[in-house]
Amino acid sequence: MSLKDIIGDSEVCRQIEALMDNRRLPHAVIFESRDSIKAKAAAKELAKISVCSSEGKRPCGKCINCIKAEKDIHPDIYKVKITDKKQAVGVGEIRELISDCYIKPNEASAKVYIISDKMTAEAQNALLKILEEPPQNVRFIITCESSTVVLKTVLSRSSLYKLSEDNKRAADELDKKAEELAVEIANVIPQNTEMPLLTTVSKLGKDKALAQKVLEKLSVYFSIALEEKFIPTGKQPPYIRELARVLRKKSLVSLIDVTAQAQKMLSQNCNMNLLATWYCAKIRQSRH
After folding, report:
1. Whole-angstrom Cα distance, residue 41 to residue 62?
2. Taking Cα atoms as reference points, which of 32, 30, 38 lies closest to residue 5?
3. pLDDT above 70 as % of the chain
4. Residue 232: helix, strand or coil by DSSP?
5. Which residues pair with 140 in a beta bridge?
6. Averaged pLDDT score across all residues of the chain
7. CA distance linking residue 114 with residue 38, whole number of Å
8. What domains, with CATH codes, occur in the chain?
9. Is the dihedral of CA 203, 81, 99, 143 positive or negative?
């Protein structure tokens, strides 16, 4: 399977192939796609290209490096894995990566490190140091569902390729998930109960792209509810009508302001779990 088979005959594919032909692949690549299977497949293919020993078109698919890479047994292709219970690559794993990447390759002319799991901010800052001055013949490949989870400093030192930029289905799926979660949060706010609110809002801490969409929708919901408070129409969805019925005008204004603050914090790459906790606390305050 070629890179074109994985990501299609797109501008992204043509850019990468041009770099391959000139032996000028960047030392750090980020594949962004809502389709994690596609992103991981692209990462594997780029890793094969990096270790291929052919003097002609790469990957040749025939040399021992290509064969081992295809079977996921190449000693110079490392998949960084989570080693603790944090559900994210931590600074410890990145420090091990940094120590290892200064060691010469075992069999190929290059070493490749693939990071497909979410990284903590601390891990990304640690990785930044090696991205600024990478050793020779070392390549880092990062896959993510949204580049918004990657620190701007890491993005600036990497080549970002968006594999799903024309994927309307992926965008529609994200919008649907955001709509469902936003409605769930809007429904639980008037109930004035602690645990359901905390449980629901905590879901914002799992996906930055999703959180952005949810906050955008909640901002609209609160604004419509405020209008409904002033001029009732009875035509809005039940969750909007309930917000308007139960909450005071002052509370709705506060929720609009708090949501705007949360959106700003999100754009500044704050810790997602801390953001969700903060937002939950502010919602509780706004209800009283």
Report:
1. 19
2. 38
3. 91
4. coil
5. 28, 113
6. 88
7. 14
8. 3-162 (3.40.50.300), 168-286 (1.20.272.10)
9. negative
